[in-house]
User: Fold these one by one.
Assistant:
Number 1:
Amino acid sequence: MTGSKTYSFFLGCVMPNRFPNAEKSIRTVMPELGYELEDLQGASCCPAPGVIRSFNEPTWLALASRNIALAEMAGHDLTTGCNGCYGTFKEALHIVHENPERLKEVQKVLKKSGIKYKGEADAKHILELILEVPPEEFKKKIKRPLDGLKVAVHYGCHLLKPSKLRPWEKTQRHSFLDNLVELTGAKSVKYKDKYMCCGAGGGVRGSNAPVSVDIAKEKLDNMMDAEADVLLNACSFCHLQFEFSQAQLNKEMGETKYKLPVIYVTQLLGLAMGLDPDELGLHKHVVSTQDILDRILE
């Protein structure tokens, strides 16, 4: 199925329920890059690799495989904009590809619901699709260069690890997202502990919010020390962590110290491509993006 320009779009739980603005930016930008996204009908939670898998791995594998099977039955590979969902699908595919007996177990479970699954569909992060566009072709789409904008890039854990199940270069210092940012004319700034976790994953935000927020605070402080104008991410759960943690920190402190705009990758790309900020959902953020928009659109 690889090679098609049409993909089954897996939303996940967080994006449609908390950040439909980020979802809108994906739906707006990807067709401009030559991709058609079809909603994955009947999809469920991915489910999260750090939670459900820890309690019942066979159930986790069957549910993850069911979502991939729905894309397979639609004749497409699957794509998602959430690192956690991406991690689940990549790891589930690895299991069924390397262990034929596990594939048979999953097929037996899914057959009860009338779902056929061969394990042939792939799962890709939207970044994989974006990066398939040659840089020289992408540059032609830049209508509003983001010159002077300083961006703190956050990759997120599940996007990169485990590296053996990811398509990126095997390195501890990835640069593909930084390079993409700089194609827009913006500058990707260096900051301390750039590849550190946002603090939300593995059930930490749900089970120990103070620790989770403290980890986010450390990253935010490092980005602010680097004088970043915006924080860029490619994961709806990381997006939630950085937006909501800033609001929580400000409330606890009784002042508005944390006001670093959190921008989803397709929002930034769409801005540089000259698309309408409203169509990219840039006016619907917990941390206001208005100052940044005023600078870019003046």
Note: The first strand starts at residue 6 and ends at 10.
Number 2:
Amino acid sequence: MKRKNILITGSSGLVGSAAVGYYCQKGNAVEGIDNNMRKVFFGGDGDTTRVRNALVASYRNYHHHSLDIRNEKKLADVFRATRFDLIIHAAGQPSHDWAASAPITDFDINARATLLLLELTRKYSPSAVFIFTSTNKVYGDRPNYLPFVELPSRYELPKDHAFYHGIDETMSVDMTTHSVFGVSKASADFMVQEYGRYFGLATGIFRCGCLTGPAHRGARLHGFLAYLVKCAKEKRLYTVYGYKGKQVRDNLHVQDLVAAFEAFYRKPRVGQVYNMGGGRYSNVSLLEAVSRVEEIGSLTMKTTIADTARTGDHQWYISDTTKFRRHYPEWRQRYGIADIMQELWDMQDVPIV
């Protein structure tokens, strides 16, 4: 197989590091961009230094760039040096709360930097496949207007509802509260679509639900399953924000996401949007997640439930991946919620390369 040149932003993060490992193991030349902004966002809990060091030590075909994706000049230097076959843009500011505290910085990182990467791709690597990790938050709080039924441990939709098997790409993004984070990611999402449809780049947009894996640096403001396990192990108080702890999230293992990226890369399309998450195969409420961790660790967690939910947060979100599975029928999920949580307990904070 011909050696490919691959660029991965956010290369020390959960998604980026998994992609680095996958493509390096296949013998490709991988350039990674990551300046550990996650530590700025989330403090020590978000520090990705160990992951970066593990990647550099493990792969001779990996070259790391500690640069800020907002720096157009330095980004251009990377693009001028190499003609890329695949670009995976996984860098970003991922927190509702942090975005509200610094809206301009959040928009620069999530929206403007994405535009810079797209324009540099169009100029220097126009035949590259460009994959963007978007978010289900582009739908804002629209999912919260669905007719949920309250069950003992979770909210659910009636089984005859059109979205019972998950929310698909037809959900409106208009007339809804997105949060500042949701708006910056939606702006980037639409621009990646436009560079596909208007300029003809092979762009794929993956609107992800909760992503996780053992290398996830979970923090209070982001990465709830990994942070939940961290709190359990370190006997920290874990705070659930709103919805009585019955809010539901689908959780997709990062290795299953990278497998979806690879499927798209092999047969790319132009400006396609895919809802991507654990779906009905892998989902959990916060109350259920706490119970699972307590069972796995044979412990009782210290938890509290705040009355107020985070602005724009979802009461229930399960992704419908039908469109992606129709386009790429070879893709299969390998990790269910039980597998994910056991692995998080066994291997949390161990860099997986």
Note: The chain has twelve helices and 15 strands.
Number 3:
Amino acid sequence: MNQKLGRSSMRPEKPVFVLNSASIVGTKEGQGPLGLLFDKVGQDDMFGCRTWEEAESTLQKEAVGMALDKAGLTPEDISFIFAGDLLGQSMATSFGISSYQIPLLGMYGACSTCGESLTVGAMCIAGGFAEKVVCVTSSHFASAEKEFRFPLEYGNQRPLSASWTVTGSGAFVLGGDGKKARAGITGMTVGRIVDFGLKDSMNMGACMAPAAASTLEQHFADFGCGPEEYDKIITGDLGKVGQRVLLDLLSRKGYDISEQHMDCGIEIFDGETQDTHAGGSGCGCSAVTLSAYILKQLQERNWKKVLFMPTGALLSKTSFNEGMSVPGIAHAVVLETV
């Protein structure tokens, strides 16, 4: 049974489905265009906790609990959980989901972690290693700013190229029974590290766009298709700046995705009324948008087939302070109506 396709893609022979999902976000996200679609909107971005980091752990814990409840499952029904976040040693995950006592495989792909976890989770089910798994990731504006940029108390000015880290968590239950599933996973393309030498940590979109272009070009080659195959080609958090870079890079390769392209970072905030500059970012950005909006469109058959491709900037505060560049990565998942 060969499920490998081309250089870096896979087409599962055994069906894999998103059985159900859940999304929880902060106050700013709840005030955005998708606010009414999220399962839960926090009244306070501390979520009743003492620290920002504890708040992010709470996001993951509640997202997993809601996803399991909606799927009618318990932690004992889940073989593995694939989870990660942006913080050092994935501490939001470690402290957030430990109480479930589900065997954990930690993920880190920066803001592409949702795509990475869905890919590995689908591989696990298609390979017969599990019947049901959970994929979850999170981010928090305040904890990410402290980890990668400046403490909020510093009050630094943000350039127009900067994105706003989404406070939120998205959790997904995957399995092989599609009777009541939200969508089917019919293909995956694993990205590679792409580094154009950019060093501006306030311009994540431009740093990640080359990786998105690379993964998309490889996906088209592996699957023998083009942009017309999809109702939507959805990147994670390139924002307005990264979107322009992506479209330009692909046009040089002969691909025009301007009609199909959508970016979660652009969709989640209102650029006219919310001061988020280039758009949204963070692990939670693509995860909550997928759960609340994209899967809804597939369920209602407004879209039949989409390519979901979260993007990640592989930097750390150490690498940035030592003057290193910001490499990017992107992983693509094919989602179809059931």
Note: The two ends are 23 Å apart (CA to CA).
